Description:
Chain A is 49% helix and 14% strand. Chain A has 755 residues and is of the alpha/beta class. In chain A, the strands form four sheets. Chain A has an eight-stranded parallel β-sheet. A six-stranded parallel β-sheet of chain A has the order 15-20-19-16-18-17, with helices on both faces. Chain B has 23 helices and 13 strands. Chain A: This is DNA 5'-3' helicase. Chain A: It is found in: Nucleus.
Amino acid sequence: MKLEVEGLTVYFPYESIYPEQVEYMRELKRALDAGGHALLEMPTGTGKTAALLSLIVSYSIHKSFKFKLLYCTRTVHEMEKTLAELRLLASHLPTPTSLLALGLSSRKNLCVNPHVLSAQSRDSVDAACRRLTASWVRSLAHDNPQVPTCPFFESYDRAASAGPDTLLLPPGVYTLGDLRSFGRSKGWCPYFLARQMIRYANVVVYSYQYLLDPKVATIISKEMQKECVVVFDEAHNIDNVCIEALSVSIRKQTLEGATRNLTQMSQEIERLKATDAGRLRAEYNRLVDGLAQRGNLAITDAWLGNPALPDDILKEAVPGNIRRAEHFLSVLRRLVQYLKSRLLTEKVETENPVNFCAAINSQAGIDQKMLKFCYDRLHSLMLTLEITNTDEFMHIQTVCDFATLVSTYARGFSIIIEPYDERMPTIPDPVLQLSCHDASLAIKPVFDRFQSVIITSGTLSPIDLYPRLLNFSPVISRSFTMSLTRDCICPMVLTRGSDQLPVSTKFDMRSDPGVVRNYGRLLLEMVAAVPDGIVCFFVSYSYMDGIVNSWNEMGILQDVMQHKLVFIETQDVVETTLALDNYRKACDCGRGAVFFSVARGKVAEGIDFDRHYGRLVIMFGVPFQYTLSRILLARLEYLRETFQIKEGDFLTFDALRQAAQCVGRVIRSKADYGMMIFADKRYSRHDKRSKLPGWILSHLHDAHLNLSTDMALHIAREFLRRMAQPYDKTGCGSKKTLLSEEDVMKMSEGAMDTY
Amino acid sequence: MELLIELSQVIIDRRPRKRQRLGWDVWPENPMKLQDVDGYIISDFSLTTNRTEQWFCVLLVPARAPQQIGFLYPDSGIAIRRSCKPFRVPTNSTQRSLSLIPATRIRTIGTEVQKLTGASSILPPSPSLPLRVEVPFIYLFLYLSSLHSDPKQNLIRYKLFLSGGRLEVGFDKNGGNKRRYKNEERFVFVPNDPRSLMKLNVEFKNIKGHKFSKDGSKQALLNLTQDPEKGTGYIFEFDNFTDRNSCRDFVGRVLGKLQSVPGRPNEQSVPEKSAGAPLPEQLSAVEMERRIKLLREDSELLRLHKQFVLSGVLTESEFWATRKTLLGEDTTRMTKQRPGFKSAMLADVRPSADGRTNKVTFSLTPEIIQQIFAEKPAVHRAFLNLVPSKMSEKDFWTKYCRAEYLNRTRNAVVAGAEAAEDEELAVFLKHDDILANEARRKIRRVDPTLDMEADEGDDYIHLPDHGILRDAQKDTAETETEVSRRTLSQDLNRHAAVVLEGRALDVELGDTRTVAEALAWSKQELLSKEKSEENVNLEKQEKVARMTELEDLQAPRNPQYASLCIKDPREYFDSQQANALRALGGTEFGTNSLDLNLSKEEVYRHLKEQISEAKSRGLRNPIIRPDTALKVFSGLSQHLSSTRFQLGKNSQESALDRIPHRTKDDLMHHWTSIQELLRHFWSSYPITTAGLYNKVQRVKDAMGQIYQKLQEIKESSQSDFRHQVSLLVQPMLQALDAAFAHYDSEQQKRTAKSGAKPNGYVR
């Protein structure tokens, strides 16, 4: 359908539209018109992504494609979903539009060369690709046809060299799979094709890190012009992503590996001195000229960029005492030695970067400026040495990342050295962590560079916290409510088990067999009553492992399996993915299944359990962070000092947004329905509960705040029966929940009249 | 088969062990298998009803009888369901509720059965030996089995077992029960009624085993099994246990003797009945149900079936042979449904200990073994590689249980040490490499909206040592050891995956080796069936599209429509044609507009001109102008259809509609019957076998009857309709006459050829 939003014709890929979506589009359009940032919270299950995409694409058509949409998702599978929605939208656009949209991912997901793909991890795929496509390898191959190259890249390069503006990809929507099959049919490398095409694409969908992590962003996203609209979808966790992007940790293995790398490099330098001294000299001259980076690198030589943000990188010549390769290596050796000595500590140490740099200067004789240039100098050296197996040089790179970061930022970071893990004090496992506390650091360049940044999610409550955490001022900041045709969500707080004893995952209660049994009974009752899929979230992997094992021993698990199949999220991603796939199959075929998952885990982050894939979510416990973690403590301290946010408030906020996120996965549209059980007595307290997003709170009746297992079961039965009845989709009278094209038209006319 | 494996135990587990279920203390699984002692007895009998309270009855008789199904219809007078008074039948089975029909009812049913079988003459092996079923000796069991009742169709099936008589095992023929008869070769069953044909004379070497009910249970049963896999055999019920026991002891002794003699030539000598008619196809219950369903849906078919099959004109198979398409349609739609795996985790064998000795006991059943094979491919592979060649099966499973036990006690150090010593044991403890490979293969086919594996390489935060390492959300990864412990969650996931894949093999559980091989084979088959990359990609896309769509925003889709079922095709098509003609309106037929006023000379001249023209210029291409051709063609076809319609309409009006309803229905009915019969008649020529000859005879007789009836109708009809009726009957009679004529000439030829001249035949 087509609708008018304040004078803009919006193409919407469905026949009807929710009123919230119209509202959402209106706000979004205002933000785009104002050219500012926006913060929008809309409940899950109201077609946020569809509304967002159709408005921005229509807006962009209106402006005749003057700007690009950069759509950032957290995960690759969300990227696929977004592209699928985009494809649906593209089929509803007026015919002469030439929309080009594509997803971008790493080589591992895009490569079609079977030799490269046989590598296991991402890094080895990258290295294998570089081994075939690095510029020096290709020039070697030019002279000597025995040297293997990648046929896909070669033919892509031939096609691309025909001219910079040759449109290699016809307009359309390309998922990763489409890019692969396109590349395979043409014989072109899909990865470099995609890298090339993001310059011309109207919509680019990629992962958060491609914008937020300076290591990647400087390479991939540096060419994006100011007029881009950047969308961060499911952005409730964006502060954590920002923080992680600037954090480095160094362990014993890292330093050992770095030592190995240094030895290897020095051997390489000796060899080069003997055979091709000119190359080293050329590098030296370049460094004298102040070019840390070697000008225009071939696209295949580009490596991970500088870990510091582009604005903070010095634009100076490399200091003289690390220009010569062997001098630089000795500096690195000293640095590694110093870090090793720091790791030998017996007690936990916390330091700020300024002190740390001073200590390095006094004990290892490396000043701050040298540290700052570590990364660029290493990069240059590795290019000179023509190192292709970059995966093996990860360790020294980590050390250089650390050095550069620690010397660049004086605020918002802290260095924590722990000799052992808090939970296993007997096993020595020293680690030195540089952790970032300030989420606004990483995202600042994005806000500065791009005209409009939209941050949206189903759970952004309290909505005033995010601008403070990320340090920006949105022009629009709104939280939408959900108009429901019927009460299709049923949140409940379960505080007691069937024996009326309280249940909780509080530290002193969680291993109590009574609590474990009560949780088990709850699951067992629900499994027998609820059809199709049930999802359970636990507070951590270790807790889940423990409780599932005790259920197995108590025989509860066997009883559960009489009703439904059981799947478990594990640390192994492959296994979890297969388990999820099988879970869906089990729900599809009617056998029904239970999925055990972990809040803050990978599944909770981005997998939907909509429709019959999840009729009930049980959140066992409150997913607080591990409060004894030094990093968390340091961060809390920083937050209190800088933003005056209380520790307790932040922890509760963080736990409740995770819980809400887990629970919100069950509902996808208004026709869908699902129940949510918060199984912990702490949820009944007002300070915890009130942090839940409004759309859940509005359905949380007072009567459902303090339930025991049998009461919850009764409510669940009643709810399921009610939901099974036929209903009128469009809602009745003034409270319309589904609008057709005429309705929207009438609405906008009515709005005109009032003006 | 149950395998008990004992291991010396470190920790005493005091879980009580359930009593194992042993031997023959339950009723056999499938009552259909209870084939009766004699080939001529009905072994299966089922009654079905539809909503209109019409009763069908299906009788299954054993394989050696010439026919397999008989039908009873309402007018045959069976309606058992209402009147039978249910009471418990003595049985050991606790699962099924049984009811027995009182003796008076049995008598009536018995006679019904007899009437039916006698009348249709489908049961006796040869016409000269009519079957007698003596009612008092019939045990009639009605099984109200919930397994077979289909609530949707209100279909309840009853099963009937008929047997009776006296068994002689090693006793003398005079009926005395005390004296031993020295014959250890065979046992004889003599029915009490000397006229009955249910005699049985079976050699002991055909008997593979014997089972019996417990002393003191309600029935004294002895089951002599002929083929343990198919479940065939003989079941005898005795009046008291002493008789049964003496009989059982004797049989046991004889069988023991026979089986101790190895390598005895196993001649497949089946008693005298095998010389009977060729074995007809075995009809499955499904097939039968389908036929019944068809009959119920199509009243015409039902009438024909009743008329010819019941009266014996056509046999069951002959009747259905011409309607294979009707039956076939369902076969393609319905694939055989296989039972899936149970959700319970059987492979998770828990050891039991008696607490006195230092031992734990694992018990493995065939089901458990099958599940272990399916869930642990490494064990499966090891079994295939090792078992007959390197170690015995028992050793293999002992080793397996040892590994399981180590795993269970979480004794990683001991496990590691033992695995280092014993490489076969290590197979069970190590990581399963087959599973890992399989996972890698499967991950490529996974729904991309779920593919978290793709994510793994996408964010550069999770480079080694980047990001926040020690946090609550990330537990430190356990270091991989050589002997990595399988976790419960892995087992659970694997189990659920196997359950979802379903039971792919269709072998009798029992022999472990065959199960293992069948599993390997089915896996290979699966592999070869996997789709190409492109298809997978397409499929993935569709899946994603389906997932992302918001259903309730979509415009309502067109509801699926049910296909049109036409009750009376004649009426429907007539009206359709009338409509079509009306739509055409009064357009003139092209044929009328031709000018026919040319004289011969003119025509001749015209032709000549054309020929000479053709000679000089050659023929035009195309020879006929398409537009003219089309015009002529459409005109002609319109003309034809209209005439047919007019005729049909006229005849309907003039003849069928005017004659009384009764006569009309009769005529229509006869017409369909004649069509059916004629089809059979003509299709059986040329006569090559005796069966065909018989068939032709039967069909001809039936046709003769209908001929008579037609004549009657013709004569009995009132004078004012006589003409119309005779007009209608005429073509039928002609068709029949032609058939008769053909039959006569064939008959003459036959007699002439065979040379067997009847009396008074003069050349």
